[in-house]
Amino acid sequence: MILVLQLASVVFDHLLTLEFADTFWQWAGIMATIAMCLATAHAILPLRISYYEIFLLTHIALVILALVTCWYHLVPHFGYIYGYQVWLYICFAFWFFDRLARIVRIAYYNRFGNATAIVEALPDCDIMQITIFPRVISRFGPGQHTFLYFPGLGKFWENHPFSVAAWKGQGQPPPIASTPTSLSDSTAKGEKVTEPAAVVSLATGLSPDSTEKTSQAALRHQTHLQDRASITFLIRAHTGMTSTLHRRVLSSPSGSSIETSIYTEGPYAGHRATLQPLFDADTILLLVGGIGITNALGFVQEYTSGHLQRGERPEKSHGIMRKAKRLILAWSAREISLIEHVRSNFLVQQDEVDGIEYSFWCTGSSNAAAQKLDAVDGENHKAEIRTAAVTVGRMDIRRVIRSSVEPGLQTTVLVCGPRGMADEATGEIVSCVKDGLRVDLVEEAFAW
């Protein structure tokens, strides 16, 4: 037995020596295997979320390395006898076409130029509102996202996918009653905002007349931008590109907004196959957590715009929510300032559209949230704004879902929030189905 093991060991060592003596196997094959393993391991969700730019660059580099080393391993080592190179050429073609298609889309949507964007920082939180006036007017819809490039930040290759919160066509009236407004118009609400004219006057020492002319020019410019087609995003500042952009806005002369150049690539997603459960739903529940509201707002706009434009929805409507008679938005967020901004600028009043319901929860500091809510409710009372109240505390997901479903009616629950919220909602929906209720689930990943 010992002699057999020794003989097997000698033979294995000899074969291993011969195999590794082959340069193409030693370098090309091993490097391709390592590159593929690293690319797979480096694509896990926590790394993509925390180090997106690093993930993107290393992933592209590792894929190129794997493809090139595979070619050197297959063709010089095996030749063209077994036809392995055909599958490799197919991989080259798919990867090259994907990269080329993205470049072509960027060139098309930006007409070899750049678009104008207004980036505004919401007060008391790390959220930014980005309003883009694209060079090419595209047909946007709910559930879509677009890649954004900010060349002015110094890294033109960095890009992120962001969900489209609202959109407006060229010369069209606002699609919703309360349209996204500039934060510079918030002085009427008592917010501290520095006017551009005042900044110019302090910085250059211009006379009051010059300041007035500058203010009038800025007003004309703003009016011109409001007449153009636009798409709006709400994004949270994380590390990397979004953090740099947020710091740039806060360090601007106004301290709240900047106008910058931007490149867009999209829209993507929002396909009929993905949203099929919404077509046959009698009730639609949007279950949202945090900044996931950006995805839900597109569906709110689709529902409300159809009712506002047509009055009563006809039976043979071709909209994505053609059968829906009830739309419920249940949203939980940490920042009361974000909740107030969204419900004041993106949502119509409940009494203006039949079948629409709002429920809000603020999970931030209880004392701070309560004080802020008292101040907000006082302002809303003075302005006679009729809107849903905000509850301090955590959303009861089970209660929200159970109160939304009705026997005999088809309900679709669209979830966009943290993983815990999505898991809890999924479990409750399964329970509803077991009880004989007709419920469908559409889950939008909170992280890309």
Give a topology summary.
Layout: H1 2-21, H2 23-41, H3 45-50, H4 52-78, H5 84-110, E1 115-121, E2 127-133, E3 144-149, E4 159-163, E5 166-168, H6 196-204, H7 208-227, E6 230-236, H8 241-250, E7 257-269, H9 276-279, E8 283-289, H10 293-310, E9 326-333, H11 336-345, E10 356-362, H12 366-383, E11 390-392, H13 397-404, E12 411-416, H14 419-434, E13 439-443
Parallel strand pairs: 8-9, 8-12, 9-10, 10-11, 12-13
Antiparallel strand pairs: 1-2, 1-7, 2-6, 3-4, 3-7, 5-6
Helix pairs in contact: 2-4, 4-5, 6-7, 13-14
3D structure, described in words:
This protein is an alpha/beta fold and 448 residues long. Helix content is 47%, strand content 19%. It folds into three domains: 18-110, no CATH class; 115-182 and 194-269, no CATH class; 276-443, Rossmann fold. The strands form two sheets. The protein has a seven-stranded antiparallel β-sheet with strand order 4-3-7-1-2-6-5. A six-stranded parallel β-sheet has the order 11-10-9-8-12-13, with helices on both faces. A hairpin with a 5-residue loop joins β1 (115-121) and β2 (127-133). It is globular and about 70 Å long. The relative contact order is 0.10.
